[in-house]
Amino acid sequence: MISEETKELVDKGIMLPLMEEFYTIQGEGYHKGTAAYFIRIGGCDVGCHWCDVKESWDAEVHPPTPIGQIVENATKFSKTIVITGGEPLTWDMTALTSALKKQGCQIHIETSGAYDMTGTWDWVCLSPKKIKLPKPEIYAQANELKVIVFNKHDFQFAEEQAAKVHEDCILYLQPEWSNREKMIPQIVDYVMQNPKWKVSLQTHKYLNIP
Ligand code: SF4
């Protein structure tokens, strides 16, 4: 049970429910292959049925952690930081990102875009979800659009989403992991016929790293 005072600090983004943090290789999307420190913030109510981090959903089971501590841990390892979740925009990211910026970090976010954008970002990976669409203003800020393909209807969804992002936004189709054997051939065909798209794979899972 967290105190009212702590809850207030979490609401302001001065503390954040930290699920896990680790130094690894970004496995997906544009920065695939790049060493980065991942900060996974708890809390998400989007509810994707295939979500591979369902344990992130309930923010209350993840300890409210002062952002100073998060920044100190991260910068011991890397100046390239990936903020993920959960859905990090559940929380106000202003204080965390400005503290990381003061340390000269490059900060990337992985978000569904379902909540208001807060914080300062060097790279925005928007991964929209059908069941809780991104806030309209987030599309213009996306550097990469990563659509998870679970079934063939997701290609149509991907095109609808691609119509909303900036023309320089890099477009990725990524197979949902549990259904990858079925969907990879369809994604490969689709990308060859629609080469504005690229394939993204969860290479960290093939490499057996977090
Ligand atoms: S938005 Fe991300 S964390 Fe939330 S349910 Fe969907 S896949 Fe899981």
TrEMBL record:
Keywords, in A-Z order: 4Fe-4S, Iron, Iron-sulfur, Lyase, Magnesium, Metal-binding, Queuosine biosynthesis, S-adenosyl-L-methionine
EC number(s) stated in the UniProt entry for this protein: 4.3.99.3
Keyword Iron-sulfur set for record: yes
HAMAP family tied to this protein: QueE
Protein name, as recorded: 7-carboxy-7-deazaguanine synthase
Residue positions binding [4Fe-4S] cluster: C44, C48, C51
InterPro entries: 7-CO-7-deazaguanine_synth-like, Aldolase_TIM, rSAM, rSAM_sf
Record: residues binding substrate: I25, Q26, G27, R40, T84, P210
GO molecular function, one term: S-adenosyl-L-methionine binding
Amino acids binding S-adenosyl-L-methionine: W50, C51, D52, G86, S127, P128, K129
Co-factor remark: Binds 1 [4Fe-4S] cluster. The cluster is coordinated with 3 cysteines and an exchangeable S-adenosyl-L-methionine. Binds 1 S-adenosyl-L-methionine per subunit.
Cofactor(s), names only, from the UniProt record: [4Fe-4S] cluster; S-adenosyl-L-methionine; Mg(2+)
